[in-house]
Amino acid sequence: MPERAWLANGGALGEKKGSETVPSPAINNVKILTIALLTLALDQLTKSVVVLSTQKLPLNGMPVVVVDGFFELVHYGNTGAAWSLFSGQNFWLAIFSLAALIFLWVSRRHFGAETALGQVALGLILGGVVGNLIDRVVHHHVVDFLQFYIPFQFPAFNVADSGICTGVGLMFVQSFQKPKPGATWAKKGKVPPEAHALVAPDEEESEA
After folding, report:
1. Max alpha carbon distance in the chain (Å)?
2. What pTM was estimated for this model as a whole?
3. 97-116, pLDDT tens digit by residue?
4. Each residue of 68-90: pLDDT tens digit?
5. Of the N and C termini of the chain, which has fewer Cβ atoms inside 10 Å?
């Protein structure tokens, strides 16, 4: 089969070699966008509840203890990035978020978007980035409201942050998985040993 022989020789799907072209695997954009929209909706819904609960959760006010010594609800306005890094740089972080969003979408194939796990990861990350970007534009800060102590005080975060971190974690897991037929072996740098069996003996000799 031409496609199998192409992969066996380290060719990438979608790559053209001579007059032959192996089609790139399809990306389920609908699945990616659906997961992104669900993440975004949950993020904005929870943040709206926090922002509207000004009496119980005033901005930068006292926390509401849910599980003493472990979990609290807070209402913090973060003008920086994770762990309050680059605090006060809300405008530039918004620009960076927009650029990252465009980059992730345009180059999604390089992040394993042809796989189910990659689609879930990208959806979570995209939804999270958009959620925090909306905060920076509307509130001029990111709304953080989840505070854990494990056992130290973990930086407050939100649903968008959870989506981004989970998505990055899934991509990390995917990087250790063995690519399946249809993945770009050459770009992943993981040509399976059994693929060499698909190459004709005379081809192997000529390459040697």
Report:
1. 78
2. 0.75
3. 999 999 999 999 888 888 99
4. 999 999 999 999 887 778 888 99
5. C
What pairs with residue 117 in β-bridges? none
Query: Mean pLDDT across the chain, nearest whole number?
Result: 81
Q: In whole angstroms, what is the distance from residue 6 CA to residue 20 CA?
A: 10
81 by Cβ neighbours in 10 Å (0-12 / 13-18 / 19+) ranks as middle
Active-site residues, by number, are: 144, 161
| Cβ contact 69:149 at 8 Å | yes
E strands in the chain: 16-17, 20-21, 64-67, 71-78, 142-148
Tokens matching residue 47 = 């943040």
For residue 208, what is the DSSP state?
-
* Phi (first) and psi of residue 157, to 5 degrees: -145, -170
Give the list of residues 6+ apart from residue 4 with CB closer than 8 angstroms, or none. 181, 195, 198
DSSP 153-206: BPPPB-HHHHHHHHHHHHHHHHTTSPPPBTB-HHHHT---GGGGGGS-HHHHHH
Structure tokens that stand for 19 in this block: 């007059």
